[in-house]
């Protein structure tokens, strides 16, 4: 697939998605969002891909927010449609069925921070800065920031982030649980690849169902979530991979999973 604003590469069961607009700090316009939609649909359909590593081009920014010139043109009706379209892309990323590791290599602001939050996990370089500065522009987060941020860090800390519009450092983001790890910039992709390798070694369907249990369970009561977990556990028990995994353990050998 050919793209103008992003790069999609595939290697060793990993898809690498890079927002490639470094001259504007990888700012998101709708054309970029639609390319991301196409790329993630392609990844979802590609059975050879097990994990996605998502980052931004250059050394300054992961994604520094929306294209403000494009944003300024919206009225109430078009603004609502604009956010719905963006939210649908982030929902695709979050519910891809394959882990997406965000490598935050600089600024992750506004829509950039929101995309990172839609990813399965987040790694940040030591110089990364994260924030939801939308109130400084007279708007609110529109790509899920008011919903995913409190789910990740709690209501109070999320309110502080959203209402002040201030940026926080990678270290502070790690302290409050917004990012999983902070590493040197040069180690960001290698660390993501190391995590990806561990995931790829596991049973594909088990990984998929574990993600489904967590993502859907977050929106349920504990009782409903436990029922979902038991159901998906049962589904796993009917797979060839479960048979292979348990037999390999008992035979003291490495399992060979087939995703069946």
Task: Kindly list the characteristics that best describe this protein.
260 residues; six-stranded mixed sheet; Lyase 2-enoyl-coa Hydratase, Chain  A, domain 2; 2-enoyl-CoA Hydratase, Chain A, domain 1; alpha/beta; four-stranded mixed sheet
Describe the fold and architecture:
There is one protein chain. With 260 residues, the chain is α/β, with parallel strands linked by helices. It has 2 domains: 6-200, 2-enoyl-CoA Hydratase, Chain A, domain 1, CATH 3.90.226; 204-250, Lyase 2-enoyl-coa Hydratase, Chain  A, domain 2, CATH 1.10.12.10. The protein has helices at residues 30-45, 68-71, 76-94, 111-118, 145-153, 155-164, 170-175, 188-200, 204-217, 222-237, 240-250, and strands spanning 6-11, 14-19, 51-56, 61-63, 100-104, 107-109, 121-125, 129-131, 167-169, 181-183. The strands form 2 sheets. It has a 6-stranded mixed sheet with strand order 1-2-3-5-7-10, with helices on both faces. Strand 1 and strand 2 form a beta hairpin. Helix 1 (30-45) runs parallel beside helix 3 (76-94) and helix 4 packs across helix 5 (145-153). The radius of gyration is 19 Å and the shape is globular. Its EC number is 4.2.1.17. GO terms for molecular function: enoyl-CoA hydratase activity; isomerase activity. Keywords: Isomerase, Lyase. Belongs to the enoyl-CoA hydratase/isomerase family. InterPro entries: ClpP/crotonase-like_dom_sf, Enoyl-CoA_hydra/iso, Enoyl-CoA_hydra_C.
